[in-house]
Design brief:
- The protein is an alpha+beta fold.
- The chain has two domains: 1-202, Heat Shock Protein 90; 203-285, Actin, Chain A, domain 4 (Alpha-Beta Complex).
- The protein is 26% helix and 27% strand.
- It has six helices and nine strands; from the N terminus they run E-E-E-H-H-E-H-E-E-H-H-H-E-E-E.
- The chain has helices spanning 72-86, 93-118, 138-142, 204-207, 213-227, 233-240, and strands at 15-19, 35-49, 57-67, 129-136, 169-179, 186-195, 254-257, 260-265, 278-283.
- The strands form two sheets. Strands 1-2-3-4-5-6 form a six-stranded mixed beta sheet. A three-stranded antiparallel beta sheet has the order 7-8-9.
- Strand 5 (169-179) and strand 6 (186-195) form a beta hairpin.
- Helix 1 (72-86) packs parallel to helix 2.
Length: 285
């Protein structure tokens, strides 16, 4: 008989990660000193049988990289994770994760137990999952390979360095996957960009100069057509479904990548599910 373990885990595993941010106006003949931050991982995992005596389990899993300390960046990242990512309205990330998980379990338990009893032929699809992972965006990480250092345990810490937005910026990526039965689950990628010095969460209006919005939208359409070898937007829609559910727009879901910016549209935003995630990369305005 398969043994099922249900457990909660909340752990902060501190690792020192070296950041080396670049300024648009560096001092002459002076090297910028790397900024050091203490990173940890906030984690919560719940795995339980979908009904009494069942082998099938449901899963709720959070893994969120967090910053220790009272810096503006640490406070802003924590607030975004609590409010925008989890949405539980708590100032403590551990309490926010716990409250969200409790609410989700309460919604699932009765439904799963009832379906398990009434629909034995469909028990495989009752293995609901809700998984969230947050970390420094991979493209930001790739910029930091030269400044990566080992932690106290001899393991390489996650590299995290981002070339600045008119100064210094950090891009953070959250992936959320969810399966609630049916033909397929959902997968969402969300980017959050922060001014390192002030902790401000950057919006698209902080990146695209006023009056240049239409120019960026035009460039976005042209790049998508080029990427998909389409003659125009009508041809692009016919080939891919892009713009079938909505027009292109300047989304706040963007990733700063050095001298370029990637806009990301999730499933169902501007195209059907089959189109998947739609990304388009342009030179920084």
């Amino acid at each position: 008989m398969k043994t099922h373990l249900s457990h909660y885990l909340f752990a902060f595993s501190n690792a020192l990660i070296l950041f080396s941010f670049f300024s648009c106006t560096p001092k002459q003949n002076a090297e910028e000193k790397p900024i050091e931050y203490n990173w940890g991982t906030a984690a919560l995992r719940i795995e339980r049988p979908v009904a009494e005596g069942a082998e099938e389990c449901y899963l709720i899993d959070f893994k969120l990289d967090t910053l220790a300390g009272e810096s503006p960046l640490a406070k802003s990242l924590s607030a975004v994770l609590c409010d925008s990512v989890i949405g539980a309205g708590y100032s403590s990330l551990s309490k926010a994760m716990q409250a969200f998980a409790d609410s989700l379990e309460a919604d699932w338990k009765e439904e799963l137990a009832e379906r398990y009893a009434d629909q034995p032929e469909y028990r495989d699809i009752l293995q609901y999952t809700y998984e969230v992972e947050g970390k420094v965006a991979p493209d930001a990480q790739s910029l930091a390979q030269s400044t990566m250092k080992a932690d106290d345990a001899g393991q390489e810490s996650t590299p995290a360095e981002q070339k600045g937005w008119k100064g210094d910026a950090l891009s953070y990526m959250v992936t959320t996957s969810c399966y609630l039965g049916g033909a397929h689950g959902s997968y969402v990628v969300s980017y959050y960009n922060f001014d390192v010095k002030t902790g401000k969460l950057l919006k698209i209006e902080d990146i695209v100069p006023a009056g240049k919005e239409q120019d960026v939208l035009k460039a976005m359409a042209e790049q998508l057509c080029k990427d998909w070898e389409a003659k125009d937007l009508a041809d692009l829609q016919e080939k891919t479904g892009i713009t079938m559910l909505g027009d292109l727009y300047l989304t706040n879901n963007f990733l700063l990548k050095g001298d370029s910016i990637e806009f990301l549209f999730n499933q169902y935003e501007i195209a059907p599910y089959a189109a998947g995630l739609i990304g388009v990369t342009l030179p920084r305005p």
